[in-house]
Amino acid sequence: MTPDLFDQNSAVAAVLALADGAVVLRRFALGRAEALVRHIETVQSQAAFRQMKTPGGYTMSAAMTNCGRLGWVTDRTGYRYQSTDPQSGEPWPAMPALFSRLAGDAACAAGFDEFAPDACLINRYRPGARMSLHQDKNERDFGQPIVSVSLGLPVVFQFGGLRRNDRPQRVLLEHGDVVVWGGPSRLRYHGVLALKPGQHPLTGECRFNLTLRRAD
Ligand code: SIN
Ligand code: FE2
User: Fold this and answer.
1) I want to staple 181 with a disulfide (CB 3.0 to 4.6 A). Which of 25, 98, 151, 185 is the partner?
2) Given its phi and psi angles, is residue 88 left (phi above 0), alpha (psi -120 to 50 degrees) or beta?
């Protein structure tokens, strides 16, 4: 597959290769950022951000919600995808076409054709919130990549290896950056360091991350 780095909707400012099957597409989502944030606001009006509990009983520092046919949740009974919001019992808000289009375009630019996400986890980080190193492995098909979109305040992303103890690379993710990992990198450990205080013109004192995945 030849990565198509020049689709009509997105200019790639630069591509940073992290590993085989993993790239940062600098500013790939910049042109669509305002619309993405508006959609996040609509989603959160239907399915509010909440801080979920890990199976171990810790409260996650990032607040989360979802859109799409399936949403990722965690509570004392474990990590899973489900079609309804446990807080309301209602289906998650539909995935905006903009989200799936962006995810498909970014996957394609990274060399993964025909990516059709059915789940979008939306993380909201306020200063001090972080995500410790973990693997994304609640999905059915690890042949499908992960597309991760950064909006608002910058954060240091950690991208590790296939073993928890592999020393991670650190890369600053800024507004509009998109990370794609799949193929041999699909199960790499990753996370983000604590968000530093700041103000972003579009998101204020926070960072949003969209993680688009094919769960089922
Ligand atoms: C995650 O992949 O779990 C979140 C990473 C991020 O917020 O950039
Ligand atoms: Fe993750």
Assistant:
1) 185
2) alpha
Nearest in space to 158 (alpha carbons), one of 197, 132, 183:
132
Per residue in 31-52, pLDDT (tens digit) is 999 999 999 999 999 999 999 9
Across the range 3-12, mean pLDDT stands at: 55
Domain range list for the chain: 31-149+196-216
The closest residue, in CA terms, to atom 3 on ligand 1 is: 191
Q: What is the mean pLDDT of the chain?
A: 95
Which residues fall inside 5 Å of ion ligand 2, going by CB? 136
Q: Which residue has the CA at smallest separation from atom 8 of ligand 1? A: 209
pLDDT number for residue 10: 64
Flag whether the pTM goes above 0.85.
yes
The model's confidence at residue 11, banded by pLDDT at 50, 70 and 90, is low
- Look up the CATH superfamily of 31-149+196-216: Alpha-ketoglutarate-dependent dioxygenase AlkB-like (2.60.120.590)
Distance (Å, rounded) from C-alpha 85 to C-alpha 60? Answer: 17
- Ligand 1: which of 24, 49, 72, 123 to mutate, judged by most atoms within 8 Å of the beta carbon? 123
Residues 130 and 177: their CA atoms lie apart, in Å, by 18
